[in-house]
Amino acid sequence: MLKLKKMKKISLVFCLFLSLNSFSQDSKLMKDAFTNSFSFESKLMFPEAIKSMNDIYNEKSYFINARLGWLHYLKKEYETSISYYNKAIALSPKATEPLWGIVLPQLALEQWVALENTYLTIVRLDPKNSLVNYRLGMNYYYKKNYVEALKYFDVSLTLYPTDYDAMNMTAWTNYFLGKKEEAKILFTRILLMYQTDASALEGLALCNK
Fold it and tell me: Hey, what domains does the chain have and what are their CATH numbers?
């Protein structure tokens, strides 16, 4: 009985040693692959950078999928980039990082509906992100949906009250909604900092008619 316990203990230690050794080897392979990939990327050698990731590819790895999404975007393989970013999004559904990543190939392919949905997902996860609110505002502004546009521009402007783009677009959106006094205040504010700004001068002149 004592001998059996001793054998089990030896077996457990041996298995632990093999597991740690395997982990150490896997960790080194991962480190080398990422190091090589970044090195190739810095030299604009994108196929080689991608191969370094494919050599250790694991479909359950957020980091590898996100990295491949980025590299295929750089290689202008936009559909492939999107497929990897989608895998990364599925693996980390609460992260905004892969969503900002997938925006790039969606823009390149002019996938406007998909892009809008991505921005809406980002704003749900990060409602006080100034950039995504501004971009959603622009999306609805170009569609002449000024009510929706103003909702997002207002958030961006609240977060960054002196940001030129936020002020300018909020002003114009108010103007097109017939809110001339609100627009006038913002155009005047812009001109305090940028006295010769053409957009603000034009908007102010229209508000004063």
Answer: 21-126 (1.25.40.10), 127-209 (1.25.40.10)
Q: What is the pLDDT of residues 76-114, one digit of tens each?
A: 999 999 999 999 999 999 999 999 999 999 999 999 999
- For residue 189, count CB atoms less than 10 angstroms from its CB and return exposed for 0-12, middle for 13-18, buried for 19 or more: middle
Residue 21 has pLDDT above 60, yes or no: no
CA of residue 71 relative to chain centroid, distance: 15
Predicted TM-score (pTM) of this structure: 0.83
**Residue count of the chain:** 209
Contact predicate 190/202, CB 8 Å? no
76's tokens: 């202008």
State the DSSP string of 28-65. Answer: HHHHHHHHHHHHHHHTT-HHHHHHHHHTT--TT-HHHH
DSSP H or E run through 175 = helix 164-176
- Return the pLDDT at 11: 46
Residue that is written with structure tokens 């190739």 in the block: 40
